[in-house]
Design brief:
Oligomer: homodimer
Order of helices and strands of chain A: HHEEEEEEEEHHHEHHEEHH
Helix content of chain A: 40-55%
Shape of chain A: globular
Number of strands of chain A: 11
Structural class of chain A: alpha+beta
Largest interface: A-B, 51 and 52 residues
Strand order of the largest sheet of chain A: 1-8-3-6
DNA sequence: CCTGTGCTTTAACTTATGTTAACTTTGGGG
DNA sequence: CCCCAAAGTTAACATAAGTTAAAGCACAGG
């Protein structure tokens, strides 16, 4: 029963079989949501967080004149808006990109899990830290990278995250997002995203066949994305903290 | 003893006098740091978070070719990198902008505080949620607003945050950041920031005398910043959750 | 009170990216 | 299997913002 969430947590923290069993409670009562539907709407009150099991969603904010910024993609294993528990109103909207399978997470469940195992508490906290790192890296990309670098960065980020939760197939992954959505994530126009993707393809860095995209040259995409080092996404827990949890 | 942090927390959660007294432990052993020094360096291990009492810092990432993105400003009352407790390596650097007074926060202290009062636990969590909201709003600004809108947004954000911790003087606040730093926060060139600030001044929206800047027309700066509603920064805790904490 | 160094401003010019619009491809429903 | 709507591509042209450079300020240190 390696759900995407458990796969991700296990990569950061050494979980016991009992922990893994306990965590499966978060998959209870799965619901479905059609592509295009809003899961969370900016300004609305919420009382539960959302754990996505399958499918993609995206967190975004749309201005009154239609300009839209996609803040990040919500992939299988991601938890949306754990801040629900302390701030009643969502600041941003989350919309399903594909059909979605998800569960609502109520504060009680989290409390129960965390009380039972400190490893789970740390692991869930780690997830939040990881998300924060993703958002900040995204901000750097949008603020200071060229269009070419930004698109390379985005593809690398998605591929890396999908690999982490076991949703990539080697160098390939299913890409449900339209170029317009990619543009809104990268802070570019869709025309320019198209130009840039073709260039990455022409240069032999990526390959696309239908909705299956491939990172042909992982080294060069990292270089293009200005990822000079391994700093960009959160690192696993240190041995020292791991020891303390035992 | 209304420290900036306590002021901010009290605005979100109803703290008892005992809570406030307990929180003052976070101000113990204040240290100083000269302007320009790095408090936290990307990729380095850390073992404590940083609570800033006085002065400004900024969180940033600098690429190998010198391009720099400022992710956010760290103002009095802000806690830097509470994620230390779960991810050993900082993903980004934090540098002092002015001379700084700060305290290191060790995990033990936080644990102790939170155990003592659930209100403090929720309040500290709220701070994190608030920071996340700031970063996301910043991302929207950098990704989708024009230069004029972005600079307006940034000034509004700083003024609002300073007001929240009692560091603004009515419509005015001390601005220690150079235009180059503002440019790196807004994802613009410093020349264009200069042009834009002059325009905001010419239009009677802001006024600057030396390092004291004023928001002359709060309504128009909000309009310029595309803040259509009150969604942008986190809202205080709901009555319902407040009740539960008693 | 001078002086130099680092900010800020302004102007002239360049460029990356946006816009518009036409054409092509893709894929789902009848 | 065909058709239509939606997504992607390409080209020509427009523009917001970047770059370079030079001049004006402002304040810290002598």
């Amino acid at each position: 029963m390696l759900t995407p969430l458990i796969r991700k947590l296990a990569r950061a923290v050494e979980l016991t079989p009992a922990d893994i069993k306990a965590l499966s409670v978060l998959g209870a009562n799965p619901r479905r949501c059609a592509a295009g539907h809003s899961l969370i709407e900016a300004g609305r009150r919420m009382s539960a967080a959302v754990l996505v099991h399958a499918g993609w969603a995206f967190r975004h904010r749309t201005l009154s004149d239609g300009r839209r910024q996609v803040m990040d993609f919500v992939l299988p294993g991601d938890i949306c808006e754990p801040t629900v528990f302390v701030t009643p109103r969502a600041g941003f909207s989350v919309q399903a990109l594909t059909e979605l399978s998800y569960s609502l997470i109520r504060p009680e469940d989290v409390l129960e899990l965390v009380t039972r195992s400190p490893r789970i508490g740390v692991a869930l906290w780690w997830v939040e830290a990881h998300e924060e790192a993703i958002t900040r890296a995204h901000l750097v990309a949008v603020g200071r990278l060229t269009a070419y670098e930004r698109v390379a960065y985005l593809l690398w980020e998605l591929w890396t995250r999908l690999t982490l939760v076991g949703e990539a197939e080697g160098d390939g992954f299913a890409m449900p997002a339209s170029q317009e959505l990619i543009a809104d994530a990268a802070g570019l126009s869709y025309v320019h995203v198209s130009r840039t993707l073709r260039r990455l393809e022409r240069e032999g860095i990526i390959r696309r066949s239908k909705r299956l995209w491939h990172i042909v040259d992982a080294g060069r995409i990292q270089q293009a994305a200005q990822l000079m080092d391994g700093l960009h996404l959160a690192t696993p827990l240190s041995r020292k903290i791991q020891q303390r949890l035992k």
